[in-house]
Amino acid sequence: MTASPHRTSTAPIAAYDRSRSTPRIKLTRRRMLIQHPDVQAGERLLAEALGAADRDALHGILKQLMKASVINQKPDEANLAFMISMMKSIAPRDSIEAMLAAQMVSVHVAAMRSAFRLSLTENLQQQEGITRALTRLARTFAAQTEALSRHRNNGERAITVQNVSVQDGGSAIVGNVTQHASVIVAEAGAATDAGPLSTRESGEYKQAEASQGAFP
Fold it and tell me: How many other CB atoms are found less than 10 A from the CB of residue 176?
């Protein structure tokens, strides 16, 4: 990589314009080259796009992405460019999000490789093994997406209720409702009671309540 002996901090700009072009990486036998007329400016653009706090963080993330981009035991420039582009679109805002975004794109690439391998084999035993690996990767990606969402929402998992149906004998909360995990907050004086829940509705309510907080 085009690195000088004395590294200087490269802090990301908060209001980074993500429509700006991000420099590509040229891979050689011994190092990575940032394809930009001004190396420092190119590093700054990459750091801003990937959410890297400084130059050390940028170079570390790029090396990790390069290793994850390997195809046929060799780092792949096109695959690396794709991973950088996906990280840029996720728009990490701090170091935790930067690391999580790097993991997400790496897991996605691994999942797509497993899907490709699955399409090539007709051996039932191999299909079962690859399917298990693909399923684990897909679940990991979903968990990472949820983790990123929770981090951006200060650890809370927001639940939005779009449709509410109340039949005879049921009760409802009328007003703006915000629900996080197991807490429901309604506007004061907004509750109305139309009587006890029916047996069927009570069962459905308990089942929905038990499912809250379940992790995929």
Answer: 9
Distance CA 36, CA 22 (A): 9
Cα torsion at 68, 86, 57, 27 (round to 10°)?
A: 50
Per-residue tokens: 140: 């990991």
Q: How far apart are CA 67 and CA 59, in angstroms?
A: 12
118 in Cβ contact with 104 (< 8 Å): no
Asked if residue 192 lies in contact with residue 210, where contact means CB atoms within 8 angstroms, the answer is no
How many CA atoms does the CB half-sphere of 130 hold within 13 Å?
Answer: 18
Q: How many CA atoms lie within 13 Å of 29's alpha carbon, on the beta-carbon side? A: 0
Place of tokens 């805002």: 93
In tens, the pLDDT along 177-213 reads 444 444 334 344 444 344 444 455 445 545 544 544 4
The pTM of the full predicted model, rounded to 2 decimals, is 0.64
Q: How far is CA 33 from the centre of its chain?
A: 27
